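Bench log. Compound arrived from synthesis this morning; before running ITC I wanted a structural hypothesis for how cytidine-5'-monophosphate sits in the protein. Inputs:
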Amino acid sequence: PRIAVVVVAAGSGTRLGAGGPKAFVGIDAHSVLRHALNGVFAAPSAQVILVVPAGREGDAMTEALSAAGEERRDLVSVVAGGATRQGSVAAGLAVVWPDIDIVLVHDAARAFTPPDVFERVIAAVGVEAPGVVPVLPVVDTIKRVVGDDVVGGVDRSELTSAQTPQGFDRAVLDAAYRVADREHTDDAALVAAAGHRIVAVEGDAASFKITTPADLDRARGLAAKHPP
Ligand code: C5P
């Protein structure tokens, strides 16, 4: 199958507080986006689509070529994102080539996602189900709280946290985006709402999403331990 990876990198980075769009914040000598792209280009994709803040398309292409090599320029597309993550994914889907069979949607903010997570997702799409999401078990005990009152526990054994890359049959993902009439928490939820089966594969702790300043510190620690 021909695979495209849509890398959403158009977030504002407000919670990170680094004074600019998160994808372009430096972890070490390299940005969040550049670290994410090292993993993306290791996966066997025919097309890589970067969805970035309007005005940063040129910077994104520069990052892509430094990660992928100039000779892979033709497989990279760059588009401006939307006001929400879902809008940004939709902008990416609009430029997926006609001959693509499988689409992976990946958060640039999960900059250290290991290659074997991409492999597990790709191996399961269309074989196990039209949608695949990498998950990790929840380690904390979960409480339902209303106001200040703990109103009950939740059975942790069935709970997981969802990561990316999430992989989909291309036609299923396109159709689900066409009929989506509200914001969903992730692409798997949007595709499930359209009536499709989603299966889980094992995620990885290294795929954590860089969101807060503490996450950025953790990313800097990881980058120092695993220099490029
Ligand atoms: O905000 P959060 O970190 O949950 O966003 C997850 C991913 O979605 C990030 O990689 C971010 O750049 C991307 N995003 C986007 N467009 C938005 C909001 C978020 O591409 N409008």
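What the model suggests: The chain is about 30% helix and 20% strand. The chain has a mean pLDDT of 95.
ITC booked for Thursday regardless.
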